[in-house]
Each structure stands twice: as structure tokens, then as C-alpha cells.
Amino acid sequence: MNATHLGLLTGLVLGVAGAFGGFGAFLVVLVLAVLGLLVGRFLDGKLDLSALSGRDRG
What we know:
It is built from 2 helices and no strands. 67% of the residues lie in helices and 0% in strands. By secondary structure, it is mostly helical.
């Protein structure tokens, strides 16, 4: 299991633990899962955040 999978799993578990039903709970789980996925991708080195800074390296 790499950091991407671990981050996604962590986000899902936190979302389920923090929410107890309904559409609002679905949104909480969705947001936390996406955040966990992004953190995991960043830790794996598969997410390049330099494009967000607006600076051109070349």
C-alpha cells in the first residue's frame, strides 16, 4: 500500500467517523477523501504543485 492509498483510506475513515448519515455526511466523506488522496499523491511525488504558483521555470 503506497501513500496515495493510505491517504485516501485515512480520508475515508475520518469522513465516516465524523459524519453519521444523510447528504451532508456524504459531502464530508467526499471532501475528506479527496484531501487524503491529494496528500497521498503529494507524498508519493505524483502531484506537481509548481504549476499552481504561476511561475515559469523556462
